[in-house]
Design brief:
The structure is a single chain. The protein contains three helices and eight strands, in the order αββββαββββα. The strands form two sheets. It has a four-stranded antiparallel sheet, covered by helices on one side. It has a four-stranded antiparallel sheet with strand order 5-6-7-8. The radius of gyration is 21 Å and the shape is elongated. The chain has 158 residues and is α+β, with helices and mostly antiparallel strands. β6 and β7 form a beta hairpin. 24% of the residues lie in helices and 34% in strands.
């Protein structure tokens, strides 16, 4: 009888506690930096992934108060964020106007550099690999334009 009770309790505990596993936790992400409240950069504590939480500035509608955030999560190596920051730093030094596309398994990160009203800027554009254009959404999302100082703050340099 004791064996039957033990077997049933093991089966029941397996069913009751085996329904889910913890895939991610907010404790596994470290905030690197932010630019105001519209763009925030995080990196996993094990440095295998990073994510940028941002507002889409390309599709801003003055008639609606859509303040939703989008997240672009991408795989990294320990020095990936430093390399991306170095691309920005080099472009701000040369003031070269161009677009640089970085391909990740999760999608494309496009770094856009240009001038507007005499000021040089850099910004991100994101296109997730899993986005479907036929869903009625535009697949390309754009962050705000950043100055060199703001990008340094985003990447936790100042």
């Amino acid at each position: 009888m004791k064996k039957i009770i033990i077997i049933f309790s093991l089966i029941f505990s397996g069913i009751a506690f085996g329904q889910f596993t913890i895939a991610d936790s907010s404790d596994s992400w470290e905030k690197i930096g932010n630019v105001y409240a519209h763009t925030i950069l995080y990196e996993r504590t094990d440095k295998t992934k990073a994510k940028i939480e941002y507002r889409d500035f390309q599709n801003v509608n003055p008639y609606s108060m859509d303040l939703s955030y989008y997240i672009f999560e991408f795989s990294t190596e320990p020095d990936t964020l430093e390399k991306i920051y170095q691309i920005f730093k080099d472009h701000f030094a040369t003031k070269k106007e161009e677009t640089v596309t970085l391909q990740f398994p999760e999608g494309k990160m496009i770094l856009e550099f240009g001038k507007s009203f005499g000021a040089y800027y850099g910004n991100f554009k994101f296109e997730k690999a899993s986005e479907l254009i036929d869903k009625g959404e535009k697949s390309m999302k754009t962050s705000g334009a950043f100055t060199e100082r703001q990008l340094s703050k985003l990447f936790g340099k100042k």
